[in-house]
Specification:
Layout lengths: L1 H5 L6 H11 L2 H20 L13 H11 L19 H11 L14 H15 L11 E2 L1 H13 L5 E6 L4 H7 L4 E8 L15 E2 L1 H7 L4 E7 L11 H13 L3 E5 L18 H6 E6 H4 L8 E2 L1
Parallel strand pairs: 2-3, 2-5, 5-6, 6-7
Antiparallel strand pairs: 1-8, 3-4, 7-8
Helix pairs in contact: 7-8
Length: 302
């Protein structure tokens, strides 16, 4: 009976349902409808949450897939900040020694191992000009990206706005959108002569009138990245001061992405060092993977 109903043509769904119902006994029809309803509800339960629907494929996946499928020649991936050589020997040797220690193979405290947090406090306190407290000011994360996602998840409510300078590290966008944040883009402007002569990353500039207009009552956070990915710009102290002044004026959290804080050739200013008032608004994220050429180890700090 069903075979003769479904062939040779394809009736509309409404006609098909009517035909099926007319040819199925009433008690079976009710059972059939109930089963379809249950299946529909189960399918709805299996759908991804709205916060992750509509996410676009990231640029890394695109490049890696293109490289893998290229039949002609290898494609060089210039999009990711990984190295073509091993970490220093002292890093590799320390990792090998750690594998033989019982405590290094078991659960660590959620904030990270105390010894590591203390080492970071000792290393960065001179750069901050004061003693950092490893118990209250430093946590270890699974890469700097998790540190940034954790910051967004902790502070961003649906509808909150986050200012991002473009171009940008593409993971910012999905991380901001995950908790319901809205990205507000402010461009870094390339030098006008960039197309006709060689220029420096330092020649990229911020239009501060443009930046100030980006602040609204919904602005919750501003993301800065210095040294900058992908441009390479190291923000000047006066630029950071103007950004900090706006953040203080609008009581906006500063998320300072400093994963390249050991890879620079010009004076490097940390925005948190500008004043105690600015420091209270600043969350700083760093990366051991970038510092020690071990990006696959996924060790970050906040």
């Amino acid at each position: 009976m069903l075979r003769s109903i479904l062939t040779p043509s394809r009736p509309s769904q409404s006609v098909l349902r009517t035909t099926l119902r007319s040819n199925i006994p009433l008690h079976l029809s009710r059972s059939f409808s109930s089963s379809v309803s249950v299946m529909s509800n189960q399918t709805q339960k299996l759908k991804p949450a709205a916060r992750v629907q509509g996410q676009k494929k990231d640029v890394w996946s695109m490049i890696n897939e293109a490289a893998a499928s290229s039949p002609i020649q290898p494609i060089v991936n210039l999009g990711q900040g990984f190295f073509g050589y091993n970490p220093p020997d002292f890093i590799l040797n320390a990792a090998k020694e750690a594998l033989d220690r019982v405590e290094c193979n078991q659960y660590a405290p959620a904030k990270g191992r105390p010894r590591l947090r203390k080492a970071l406090a000792d290393a960065y306190s001179p750069l901050w000009g004061r003693q950092l407290d490893p118990e209250t000011e430093i946590i270890i994360t699974t890469g700097a990206n998790e540190g940034m996602l954790s910051a967004f998840m902790a502070f961003i409510e649906p509808g909150d706005e986050v200012i991002v300078f473009e171009p940008f590290f593409d993971q910012y966008i999905s991380n901001i959108q995950m908790p319901g944040g809205k990205v507000v883009y402010v461009p870094l402007h390339p030098p006008e002569t960039g197309a006709t002569k060689n220029s420096s990353a330092a020649d990229w500039t911020i239009d501060f009138d443009e930046l100030e207009k980006a602040f609204t009552p919904r602005t919750k956070m501003i993301v800065i990245n210095t040294p900058h990915n992908p441009v390479g710009k190291v923000f000047h102290k006066d630029e950071l001061q103007k950004i900090a002044d706006l953040a203080v004026k609008h009581q906006t959290i500063i998320l300072s992405d400093e994963v390249y804080d050991r890879l620079f050739y010009v004076p490097f200013t940390r925005i948190a060092n500008l004043s105690p008032e600015v420091e209270k608004l600043t969350l700083t994220v760093g990366s051991a993977g970038k510092n020690f050429y071990a990006t696959g180890w996924r060790v970050g700090r906040s």
